[in-house]
Write a structure and sequence with these properties.
349 residues; alpha/beta; Rossmann fold; Isopropylmalate Dehydrogenase; 11-stranded mixed beta sheet; 11 helices
Length: 349
């Protein structure tokens, strides 16, 4: 199994992607194909003291920058590293793709090169929230700012399958992010989604208020991409604020510093749990291939974890399960004249 890594994706490329690939190969035995300008990749390998023949290097002459317009750049830069990496899945030369590059470009490229799983109306990006030992999958967190009720129902189905197959949770518990627990709470969208989720075979536990996400024992939290993106960023900001305040408080008194020295292992363990890099990246669910989107500032350790997650997802059978479930749902809906049947491979972003 080979995982294609966009070596030019992210703010710290190619240094950190190459270093992460090296960690994944040496610590986890993962075969990685580095995709990007060959000269730049070989130069970085040499700088890190690694023989160029230790990795498969797949040439890509163009790079999509973080500030580029995603859909336009993907179409104009046909030989961009993310496009070439997606092509490796399409050609059967790779089992998954990992990129820390422009998230919109990763999604646009995946739709263009791989298309959607048949029956999926819109892909979703999932992020792991560190509220349980395994983590809670929150989706969507940015792929779709405005959503239809049927999309959120599919997000719940895809998230449930992902947690079942990749993390081994027998019956993932799914919650709907809302402003109250009662079924009458929320706007028209969440009220309609609530009613529809009650009719699905997934383990739907009902509405979940934001301040109780860590208390109700769920594995998947469903929301629209706008709300999900805001929720994740607020959580990241709050965690950063707490650690900065804690650091300032500790440094303000000598005896606090002494106490912190004793507590350092516990504090580092807590910080590690809050670090998004520990989870490796966010799965792009609904496209017809395994795609992991790492944080734009991902370091070598985060890239390594992203490659591990990609391999686990590719080996889990998650994609085949998704194809079967969403296709059967589409057929059942079509028989009841209630399904939307998108054109396979449609690339609208």
């Amino acid at each position: 199994m080979t995982i294609a890594l966009d070596a030019m994706g992210g703010d710290l490329a190619p240094q950190e992607p190459v270093a992460g690939a090296l960690l994944a190969r040496r610590e986890l035995g993962i075969e990685v194909a580095l995709v990007g300008p060959g000269d730049a990749i070989r130069s970085e390998l040499a700088r890190q003291g690694v023989p160029a023949d230790e990795f498969e290097i797949v040439e890509a002459t163009e790079v999509i920058a973080m500030e580029d317009s995603p859909a336009q750049a993907v179409r104009q830069k046909k030989d961009a590293s993310i496009n070439v990496a997606m092509g490796l899945i399409k050609d059967g030369r790779a089992s998954a793709v990992v990129s820390a590059g422009n998230t919109g470009a990763v999604m646009a490229s995946a739709l263009l090169k791989l298309g959607r799983v048949r029956g999926v109306e819109r892909p979703a990006i999932g992020a792991m929230a560190p509220y349980t030992e395994t983590g809670i999958l929150v989706l969507d967190v940015g792929a779709n700012a405005d959503c239809k009720a049927s999309w959120l129902v599919q997000f719940a189905q895809m998230g449930s399958l992902y947690m079942e197959k990749v993390f081994g949770i027998a019956k993932p518990r799914v919650g709907l992010l809302n402003i109250g627990e009662e079924d009458t709470k929320g706007n028209e969208l969440t009220q309609e989604v609530y009613g529809r989720l009650r009719e699905t075979p997934i383990e739907f536990i009902g509405n979940v208020e934001p301040d109780r996400v860590h208390l109700v024992g769920i594995d998947v939290l469903v929301t629209d991409g706008f709300t999900g993106n805001v929720a994740v960023k607020v959580t990241e900001g709050a965690a950063d604020f707490i650690f900065r305040e804690l650091r300032e408080a500790i440094m303000s008194r000598l005896h606090y510093k002494a106490a912190a020295a004793v507590l350092r292992p516990a504090l580092m363990q807590m910080r590690s749990k809050m670090d998004s890099g520990e989870y490796g990246g966010a799965p792009l669910l609904g496209v017809d291939g395994v795609v992991i989107v790492s944080h734009g500032r991902a370091d070598a350790a985060a890239i390594k974890n992203g490659l591990r997650l990609a391999q686990d997802a590719a080996e889990s059978g998650m994609l085949d399960a998704l194809r079967g479930t969403l296709e059967s749902t589409r057929i059942a809906g079509a028989n009841g004249a209630a399904a939307v049947s998108p054109t396979p491979g449609e690339t609208t972003v």
